[in-house]
Amino acid sequence: SQTIHQWPATLVQPVGSPLSLECTVEGTSNPNLYWYRQAAGRGLQLLFYSVGIGQISSEVPQNLSASRPQDRQFILSSKKLLLSDSGFYLCAWNHGMSYLYTEAFFGQGTRLTVV
Amino acid sequence: EDKVVQSPLSLVVHEGDTVTLNCSYEVTNFRSLLWYKQEKKAPTFLFMLTSSGIEKKSGRLSSILDKKELFSILNITATQTGDSAVYLCAVEGHTISNFGNEKLTFGTGTRLTIIP
After folding, report:
1. Is the peptide bond before A18 cis (omega within 30 degrees of 0)?
2. Is B96 an interface residue toward A (CB < 8 Å)?
3. Are the Cβ atoms of B31 and A51 closer than 8 angstroms?
4. CA-CA distance, A62 to A24, in Å (whole number)?
């Protein structure tokens, strides 16, 4: 069965420090991978999505970047965190080959607090 | 730009009541609409709807899609305290790009609170 792992679960970082959140998927190959952010009072905002190694699409201009060094690994990074980067970050995957499989499966999320 | 609007933003009802949650959307080349339940962390899947007028049902939960009027409703009957959660609506639109064409746009969610 497929599983998705996301870590760390919580993170407190000072302003200006770097960030690296990691997400890995097991039990499937060539998944679509997504990073979402859920800020207080807002819905899930799509930040990045990837349909293959090295292929990243960004949805909103921001202080963050994403990379996909391996098929089932998706990394969210920042060189210098801002206070506004605080939020709940979710990684997700789904199958990209057929619209019948558009249900997305989510990791447990990372609560990031920038202080 | 794809858009998903959910209403109400929050809802407080007593246990046993029936609730209806709404989701309207504007999306390029609609493919499917999905409902998720988010309790503490990760959203969990409830329904996927692709055709108008066909009700999907799972226990006390049901959902239906109207592709002409561009909305969906999620009904929960005989609510229980375990139904308290944020309910998210997401829509998949088919877009042609160099990087593939399947991504979900989420609404802000409806926070449902069930009072015992």
Report:
1. no
2. no
3. no
4. 23
CB contact under 8 A, B99 and A49: yes
Measured on CA atoms in the order A104, A109, A114, B5, is the torsion positive or negative? positive
Would an 8 Å CB–CB cutoff place B93 in contact with chain A?
Answer: no
Distance from chain centroid for Cα B3: 13
Identify which of B4, B48, B109 has the shortest CB distance to residue A102.
Answer: B48
pLDDT in tens, A8-29: 989 999 999 999 999 999 998 8
CA distance to partner chain B, nearest, from residue A80 (Å): 26
User: Tens digit of pLDDT for each residue in B38-97?
Assistant: 887 678 889 989 888 889 999 999 999 999 999 999 999 999 999 999 999 998 876 555
Q: Where are the beta strands (DSSP E) in chain B?
A: 3-7, 10-14, 19-26, 30-38, 44-49, 56-58, 61-66, 71-76, 85-94, 102-106, 110-115
Interface of A with B (CB under 8 A): 32, 34, 36, 41-46, 49-52, 55-57, 88, 90, 94, 96, 99, 102-109
Amino acid residing at A97: M
